[in-house]
Structures are given as C-alpha cells and as structure tokens.
Amino acid sequence: MKPFEEKVSRERRFEFRLERYLCEVSHFEWHYHQEYELVLYRHTEGQLFAGNYHGHYEHNSLALFGPHLPHTATLDQCTGPEPTTYVLWFGQDWIQQILTAMPSLQRVGELLVRAGQGVSFPTDLGEQVHSRLERLSTLPEAQRTLEVLMTLAMLADSAEWQALNPNLAPGSVTDGDRIQAGRIRRLMNYIEQHYHEPLAIDDVSRALNLSPSTLRRLFERHFRESFSEHLKQYRIGKACEYLVNSETPVALIAEQVGFQNLSNFNRQFRQVKSMTPRQFRQQFNPLTHA
C-alpha cells in the first residue's frame, strides 16, 4: 500500500497546530506529510505503524514522527473517560529557523534528527506532555510558541526513548557527522539491496571496506542493536509490507525476504510481532476483508 501525502497546512509559513480527536472507529490510513508530528494517546489502546515498525500503543503513549515518515494507527478500544488523541504538527522551516537563532537548543535539533526514524517515549513523559498540550490552547500566541519549544526541549533531555525504525539512517546536524552519516547511508543502502541474500557481518564489512569491529560499533551506537537483530527486524518489516500489500503465499514471502526456512521465519515473525504471518495478514490486509 503506497502512502498518500496528507496536507497539514497550506500556509506558506506554517508554524504549528494542535488538534484533538475523540475516540472513534479508525481506518488504516497510511500517510506522511511535510511537517513533524508529535502524537499522544489518552485512554485508548491500539496498533501503531511507522515505517517498518508495528507495535501496541496505550494510555499516554507518546511518539514523534519526522517529515516523510509513513505512519498510521488503528484503534482497538477506548479505555477511560474522554479518550482522546492529541496531534501537534510543526513546520520544518519554522523550527529550523529557531534552532539556527538559538544554539542552546542543539539537543532539540538532535531529537529532530532521530524523529526521521520515529521515536517513542515512556508513558510517564506522556503524562507530562499532556499537561503542556492542555495548557497550550489557553495561552497567548507568543507564549504558545514558548510552550511548544519547552515541550520539545523536555523530550530532547529525556534519556528514555526508543527508535521505532533503527533500520532507517538518522540525519546529521553538524559537519562533523558527515563521514559517519555517509557510512550509515552506505550501510543501509547495502542492506536494502542484499537483505534477501544470506548475509553476515563479515560480508558487509568487506563490501563497505570497514572492519567488523567498526561496523559493530556503528550498529551499537546508531541503531542500539546488533547486526543480526537489525537484519532480522529489517527482514520482518519487509515481510509485513508484502503481507499487507499482496496475496503472495507466506512461504514465498519468507524466501523473498531472506529466510531460507519457513518454520524459522514463522518463529522469528511471531517473536517480533506477537502473531503469526497469517494472523498479521488477516488483521491488516484489506483484501482479506473483501
């Protein structure tokens, strides 16, 4: 399923906008947009999708998506009073102009780089963000801008965050990062082109002219996981794309994404997604509900 572009605003100098959505029947609307998006779920539970990521969200789940990252969510149930989804969009140009003028917000810039992978935060932080979002609409215009920046600064200072798509290379915010960012791009391009083949870390290191130890450090530092775990997650993510967007037999999909053994594919898929490939297809492929 190809994501569609959602037009958040037609303003030439879009700054930010907060919307609240009451709990209601949801649809799988796979989309992206040009703006950053901070989303907070209150008294609801469901399934969150971002890039190749699929996971469960609950009360006070909080996530940040960068521009062009496809995402959506489906509702399972409302779990309390006033079940609401808060969505705060803010423009790329607006936030970049502020970061350029205020070097003290460097960590916010680093947060926005990570947003390209999709970032989730712990629920206790979601509770704090809820208080700020509730206050936002009651403030004068100038103070609303400060409130948004203070919210982003709070998230940037948090050490407890999770990259939803560690298989997506983060961007770079300084000239000193260019060499490392180039390595990451080469690495991700190589995995994207060869993930369906038998692949070991020695193969990748030779292809990229990097030592295995350098490559291991690259995964630990930028993706927070080992090479084997990263490759498994990438392959499972690709399998999910095929399951949702086609009627290709599961056994063939397993082979296409690099699993030589169907039982191993089923076991690894269930470990990552907490369901079998067939259950995943039945739940999220619209063709199975036709």
SSE diagram, text form:
Layout: E1 4-5, E2 16-22, E3 31-32, E4 36-42, E5 44-50, E6 53-57, E7 62-65, E8 71-78, E9 84-90, H1 92-101, H2 106-114, E10 119-121, H3 123-136, H4 141-157, E11 162-163, H5 178-194, H6 201-208, H7 212-222, H8 227-245, H9 250-256, H10 262-273, H11 277-284
Parallel strand pairs: 1-3
Antiparallel strand pairs: 2-9, 4-7, 4-9, 5-6, 5-8, 7-10, 10-11
Keywords: DNA-binding, Transcription, Transcription regulation
Domain HTH araC/xylS-type: 185-283
InterPro entries: Homeodomain-like_sf, HTH_AraC
Protein described:
This protein has helices at 92-101, 106-114, 123-136, 141-157, 178-194, 201-208, 212-222, 227-245, 250-256, 262-273, 277-284, and strands at residues 4-5, 16-22, 31-32, 36-42, 44-50, 53-57, 62-65, 71-78, 84-90, 119-121, 162-163. By secondary structure, it is an alpha+beta fold. The protein is globular, with a radius of gyration of 20 Å. β5 and β6 (53-57) form a beta hairpin. The longest helix is centred in the C-terminal third of the chain and has 19 residues, at 227-245. A six-stranded antiparallel beta sheet has the order 2-9-4-7-10-11. Helix content is 46%, strand content 19%. It folds into two domains: 4-163, Sandwich (Jelly Rolls), CATH 2.60.120; 179-289, Arc Repressor Mutant, subunit A (Orthogonal Bundle).
